[in-house]
């Protein structure tokens, strides 16, 4: 056991081999009563020693149970549960927590710090066993995993509908900033260097990294960023969200200014509120009004622009040189779009076809037939399901990620690194699915089911961890057995392709990419 003094009080952690771990450390006040709908407040000091030897409870979750019909074989259900399933602990209002792993508690060690933001579509997820960050700490960094408010508690943007900041905008993102401020104030006590922080996140965590890079409120809180399997184009103007929030609250019997009515909504009613927002945003499916997430029918809404947190959309900010002068490493999984075939309640081939209809407004000239024809010509011999999966992947993940790389490289030459992950899951049919990067990078809670148990897989896991840690330490990703990683630019478009045999490619799938420009 080890005891560390933080600005809030003493915490007792555990020794895990050569590492120290501290789990469930509060960084903000509980989200009870009015606090549920207000910006986070830093945690007040506690007396005595806080036990931090086990994972804390998750924030309230806003997602249904994983489909258990014959359409989802056991292994696929396990995949969905692994990434978005319920925590082993009951949810709690005292859940603005974080976990820390470190190889040393010497405050003079000044190790690089890596702060991870979990995924789950802004509706589910927690800093739990899935995100065991000890593999990073073993490579000489201090690793932190944070929790933040979800669903309507974190992302129902209603600034101006109530007095002051009640039900204000971007509360979930403000939670993340509050956690990053805690890191600045305390991480030296755990052996970390507050001036050398890298933020990284997967899926909704990546959707968070992109606006954090552009937020003046996050200025000086981190130096580097790694969004994994996300898109920067998930944001929308605050006035659009405010109008939507007003409508759905009125459907729930909550009039503008009636704080008591909003406070009276219990968890079941908040879940109904979540569903109403989803129906309103996803039903309209208007990416110009609500961002790209409105086309996915998955999760909740993203950041509100035109706000103190995010004055302008991320891509415009990157091109102009963001308020946060950061190095960027970003990428996608080759089959990110396969996720949608699993979460829609239809057989896989039907789901992909159904989901194609959500592409209207995203593809060139809204001509779905033309894009299918083009992809078939570039993917000879591949099944219709493969073609549609690739279009989904490109529309929602790969092309938006490339656009972010282009924008960042324009404002930060030589400091942008692009990757793609081609490694295929051990579960037949999943491929390089959305989230497989998390399973490769973090601990082993689901590795035996989702990954191949062979030497090449373990070598890839080690290589990727080394690349991530190298980037956090120096701003340049390097790893044994990996080619020299050239920065991304619009001339060569260098991309590191992680697989059993990792390779650097230039202008990959140029004919597919050009179709979207």
TrEMBL record:
It comes from the Bacteria. Belongs to the type-B carboxylesterase/lipase family. InterPro entries: AB_hydrolase_fold, CarbesteraseB, Carboxylesterase_B_AS. This is Carboxylic ester hydrolase. Gene3D superfamilies: alpha/beta hydrolase. It is an enzyme of class 3 (hydrolase). Signal peptide: none annotated. Keywords: Hydrolase. It comes from Stenotrophobium rhamnosiphilum. Residues 3-508 form the Carboxylesterase type B domain. GO terms for molecular function: hydrolase activity. Its EC number is 3.1.1.-.
């Amino acid at each position: 056991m080890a005891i560390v003094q933080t600005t809030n009080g003493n915490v007792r952690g555990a020794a895990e081999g050569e590492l120290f771990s501290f789990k469930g450390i509060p960084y903000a006040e509980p989200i009870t009563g009015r606090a549920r709908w207000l910006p986070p407040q830093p945690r007040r000091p506690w007396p005595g020693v806080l036990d931090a030897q086990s994972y804390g409870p998750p924030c309230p979750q806003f997602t249904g149970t994983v489909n258990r019909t014959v359409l989802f074989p056991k292994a696929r259900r396990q995949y969905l549960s692994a990434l978005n399933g319920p925590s082993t602990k009951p949810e709690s209002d005292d859940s603005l927590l974080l976990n820390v792993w470190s190889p040393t508690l010497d405050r003079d060690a000044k190790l690089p710090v890596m702060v991870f933001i979990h995924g789950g579509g802004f509706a589910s997820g927690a800093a739990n066993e899935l995100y065991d960050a000890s593999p990073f700490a073993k490579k000489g960094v201090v690793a932190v995993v944070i929790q933040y408010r979800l669903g309507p508690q974190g992302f129902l943007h209603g600034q101006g509908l109530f007095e002051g900041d009640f039900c204000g905008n971007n509360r979930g993102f403000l939670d993340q900033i509050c956690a990053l401020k805690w890191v600045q104030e305390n991480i030296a006590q755990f052996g970390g260097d507050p001036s050398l922080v890298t933020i990284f996140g997967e899926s909704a965590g990546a959707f968070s990294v992109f606006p954090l890079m552009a937020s003046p409120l996050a200025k000086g809180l981190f130096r580097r960023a790694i969004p994994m399997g996300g898109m920067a184009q998930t944001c929308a103007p605050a006035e659009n969200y405010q109008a939507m929030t007003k409508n759905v609250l009125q459907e729930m019997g909550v009039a503008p200014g009636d704080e008591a009515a909003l406070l009276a909504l219990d968890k079941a009613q908040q879940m109904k509120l979540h569903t109403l927002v989803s129906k309103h945003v996803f039903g309209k499916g208007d990416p110009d009004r609500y961002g790209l997430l409105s086309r996915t029918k998955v999760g909740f809404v993203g950041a509100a622009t035109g706000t103190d947190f995010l004055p302008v959309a991320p891509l415009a900010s990157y091109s102009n040189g963001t308020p946060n002068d950061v190095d960027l490493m970003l990428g996608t999984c080759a089959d990110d779009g396969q996720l949608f075939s699993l979460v829609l309640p239809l057989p896989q081939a039907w789901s992909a076809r159904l989901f194609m209809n959500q592409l209207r407004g995203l593809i060139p000239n809204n001509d779905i037939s033309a894009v299918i024809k083009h992809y078939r010509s570039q993917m000879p011999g591949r099944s219709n399901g493969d073609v549609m999966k690739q279009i989904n992947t490109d529309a929602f993940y790969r092309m938006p990620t490339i656009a972010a790389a282009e924008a960042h490289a324009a404002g930060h030459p030589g400091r942008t690194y692009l990757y793609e992950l081609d490694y295929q899951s051990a579960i037949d049919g999943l491929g390089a699915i959305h989230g497989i990067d998390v399973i490769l990078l973090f601990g082993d809670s689901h590795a035996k089911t989702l990954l191949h148990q062979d030497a090449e897989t373990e070598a890839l896991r080690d290589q990727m961890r080394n690349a991530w840690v190298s980037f956090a330490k120096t701003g340049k990703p390097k790893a044994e057995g990996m080619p020299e990683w050239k920065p991304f630019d619009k001339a060569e478009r260098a991309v590191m392709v992680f697989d059993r045999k990792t390779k650097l490619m230039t202008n990959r799938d140029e004919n597919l990419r050009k179709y979207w420009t």
